[in-house]
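Sequence of O-antigen ligase (Alicyclobacillus macrosporangiidus).
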Amino acid sequence: MTYRAAAAAVPSMSGTSAGLANSAWARWCLYLWMLFPVVDFALRQPVVHVLGLLWDKVVLVVLAILALGRFIAGHRPQWFPWQRYAGWFILFGMGLMFAGLVQPVVAVQGYRIDVYYILYTFLFPFLIAPEDVPRLLHLGALVAMLVGIHGVIQYLLPVPIPGGWVDASEHVRTRVFSVLQSPNELGAYMALSTPLMFGLALAERDRWRRWLYAAGTPLCMATLLFTSTRGAWVALAVAVVIMAVRFERRLLLVLVVVAAVAVFLPPIHHRISELLSPVYWIKSSESGRVFKWITAYDRMSTNPLFGVGVGNFGGAVSSLYKGGIYSDNYYAKTLAETGLVGLTLFAAMHLQLMRDLFRGPLRFVRGRDRYVVIGGVTGLIAVLIHNGMENVFEFAPMAVAYFTYAMLLLIWGSAWREREEVPDAAPEA
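Predicted 3D structure, token representation.
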């Protein structure tokens, strides 16, 4: 991307140089971070499981030390409004954690799942310069492409899957899961990555990378379809419609073509038609998703403002320590555990993040690079929608990818904004 030189021409707001080029430690930590799905899967194998539990904490500590060093040296990065809401949500969750310390493991673990990966976003502005963003996006896209290829291979084999992943009335060849170990989470990851890769294919000026991303996009889309995750399908379709109507209506044609092809594939046709069946919704209200959502509301109603406490309902922690259920809706889980106050703060945080993206990079990034931002934001919106049908944010690779890509786009867009506000800083064409 030619944007790197333009971004580097923007003067730092603090007058202090920053970026990955100035620290090998920061550079390699962020490279590992962009490889999160693969690295975390590899390090959680039985032989090295201890490393899998610790490696991301080590990265956090290293990044925190480096950020502190740059702060002491005088670097003052730009902060984004959504981070203020994130801070309030973190502080509120901390209060609920201390209130629930009669069950310390549940309280601490429940709080960690809600806020842990948000903490990294407060360090990124100290360490990542706008000119670093294209390289990190390329690395993230490469990982997604490798995961997509692995998903296609799993489908062709086909890999055996647990019976619980398929309804008794269905005949599904397989549901792919790759290194994410769950079809639903892999579906969310592909819904996030596919539009970003498509944007990179449209924006890329290097011929080989352009063809690489052009080939990777249908591979990732195929893997998304092979997960048989309806929530991810619907989420991405809705996200594409939103962004197409707002920015690029030609994308609607792409969506129509993909949907038309997909609907003629028997497994996909069956999954969609079942979703439209009244029988499905009756069963769902008796023991499925709708029942779980209603249960989450009932649990919240015992303490409407503050809920039943972090880690006490609807997610991995409650399932592990209290024999609870997954709510299959991260917003329902948040409502039950943190009440109306917590859900309001959580929703405000993400709504402000979307507002920052629309008023920042989507507004100021120009030229072909704009397709990268459109694709990235489309994937982020798809994740938010999918959270209404799955506990997407409880899975580490998805929380990492969502918050990391959002921050990369914001940091990238901030340089474009400075170029517009300080036009003399931009090089002449």
